[in-house]
Amino acid sequence: MTSRYQDPATIARVLDANTWAVVGLTDNPARTAYRIAQVLLDRGKHVIAVNPRGESVLGCPGVTSLDEIDEPIDVVDIFRRSEQAGTHVDEAIAAGAGAVWLQLGVIDEAAAGRAAAAGLSVVMDTCPAIEWSRHR
């Protein structure tokens, strides 16, 4: 692995986390976020859908933003374009999340640096489904 945000020990620790807020999760089975949310659910994770309508997805509660979540967030999993990711990373920091996971192809070094400086675990430019096959 080449990125400092793809550290195997960090990835393994984040994969063990329970509560995942999935930013960009909508009720569209053709979208990657939907498929990965299903993988998270299959792994026994508690998933919260974060989308503009606040709609529930796959039977998981939905909210429009991270600040609406009234429970501890272990991981904020971001399925947004790279240029939009920083806003959600900053929301994760403000919400007291334990980690941010920027999905495969979502790269924002500055936002990742802010999250790391705030004490969050950071994984970037990879996918939990890929990493479970590597780490389990």
UniProtKB/TrEMBL annotation:
Highest classification ranks of the organism: Bacteria, Bacillati, Actinomycetota, Actinomycetes, Micromonosporales
Entries under SMART domains matching the protein: CoA_binding
CoA-binding domain span: 14-106
Gene3D superfamilies, per database record: NAD(P)-binding Rossmann-like Domain
Domain of life: Bacteria
Protein name stated in the entry: CoA-binding protein
A Pfam family reported for this protein in Swiss-Prot or TrEMBL: CoA_binding_2
UniProt organism field: Actinocatenispora comari
